[in-house]
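Q: Hi! First time asking for a complex rather than a single chain. Here are the components, and I think there are two in total. Is that enough to go on?
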Amino acid sequence: MGRARVRSWTFRIGLALTIALIIGALCADLFSPYDPYSVDMDAVMVPPSGVHLFGTDYLGRDLLLRVLHGGRISLAIGVLAVLISGLVGTTVGAIAGFAGGWLDEVLMRITDIVLAFPTALLALAVMAVFEDPTVGKIFIVLGLVGWANIARLVRAEVMTIKERDYVLAARSVGVGPLGVVLRHVLPNTLGTLLVVLTLGVASNILTEAWLSFLGLGAQPPLPSWGAMITEGQYFLTTRPWVCLFPGIAILLTVLGFNMLGDGLRDVLDPRLRGGG
Amino acid sequence: MRAAAKPLVECTGLMKTYAAGGFAAPRGTHVAAVGGINLAVAPGETLALVGESGCGKSTTGRLLLGLEPPSSGSVKFDWADLQALGERGLRALRKRMQIVFQDPYGSLNPRFSVRRTLAEPLRIHLKLSGSGLEKRIRELLESVGLESAHAGRYPHEFSGGQRQRIAIARAISVEPDFVVADEPVSALDISIQGQILRLLMELRRRLAMAMLFISHDLAVVRQVSDRVAVMYRGRLVELAATERIFEHPAHPYTRLLLESVLRPEPWRGGPDASVRAQTGGHAGLSMPAGCAFSARCPLAGSNCLDGSPPLREIYPGHYCACREAAATTNSI
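A: Yes, that's all I need. Here is the structure of the assembled complex.
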């Protein structure tokens, strides 16, 4: 209302890429005559053509359809993992930022340890603890790693916001500590949180891709982009499309979410900085 | 007006120190924002607290409301010790004391509509809800000169002056006995300042509120206050009835402040040479051994370095913390 809309091409392009991915991933089966899991030994690794727009893989499966189905896995993992780590990160960050003192100190040191822990090592450890690798375990890894970053950013934001006059005003009209945090402080971190979560989706998708590439994530025959690149890497010089299309899909998706996040920051910032 | 026998708000030996920031500061260095203040506000009285920025005016206001705990000393509100009340008791007492902040752009939650901002204190203290709440919000908006149709709007849709009206409506919503007005007009346009001041003064009369009016604008202070307290570097240096302090300022710092006010006819009578002090006497964080003002004071003599001078009554109801001035003013 009355607020000048901020034009941001970063935001628009990011939004367009993200929406394109979501539509593509969800509607893949409506337009394709193929099945992402059905093997066709008569059409193994055919190059892109009118019949198979992205070509086929080493088992003759349609690559376009598999890339789009891979989008479902990436999106599901990226978004769900960010929701889990967002919940943990926001809670930890809000407590640390608002309480301060020794509690802040303890929580932030734990956060530092998590941030310093190599993701690959953690992934190997998780895979070792549970027998066979599945998609569900990627959640565990991403959740364990992702919240730390969010906690730090939320803590910093809470620490600035709790010094604002409107928070003091809320206390001076008699709002209790819990009401101050839940009604006055946290809602005003939403802008930052939204940006952080969007960027988190991009980083989760990327992490899922390389975990799957290393065989630590989604397993065949699931059409995960990382796993598809693994399958195609031996034919990189002779049949480049098998790797190329999942690679481009990762690139565009991560680019899309990153641009969306940066764009959101541009769109939301003037309002937040102005305090209203 | 002198402080009545029973003060509404009273502080004794009020002190607030902060740990000095920055990595260069030695560990354990403390800066005294408020360095031991005794002050009493009578019911219905408007006491102005004046001084340059950074002298501890705002901190004093927040300490009086219990929004920050004092490092030492005590604050009594209607004989109840704020420190002894605890978190819950203090929250209940908030019905009786409120604050209006300087910056109306920072004091309203940007995500709260006007209705929600005003509803919060009404729900907490008056247990209002439903149509009773709506009715009270309408009344409040009208009493600060806004339309009741504005209730659904958000802070960014208002001008600075209108925002300050909303902040004032929030402060008076519970009909408090005491309001701290922390430079309530200094962030506003000159053209708006008068309107907001008149509104505050009208509400003060109508609700018979006591007020601590924090300001550095002496012209405004003269209009609105019953008594004036002058602060310098965390201490009270002079306290007297408004007319008394403007007519017979005793402390050299007060005189310096009064001289720095723009006069309508500057060619008539320049500043008295005896009060023309050196400016920029702030020597970092360290306090001088004696009177804090001695570094800038034109009257400073050797006995000014002998401890901080206490507030002494130099005339009925007129207190001054200056050894040199006390000697001269008594002869007036």
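A: The interface with chain B takes residues 1-3, 164-166, 168-176, 184, 187-188, 271-272, 274-276 of chain A (CB under 8 Å). Let me know if you'd like any chain examined more closely.
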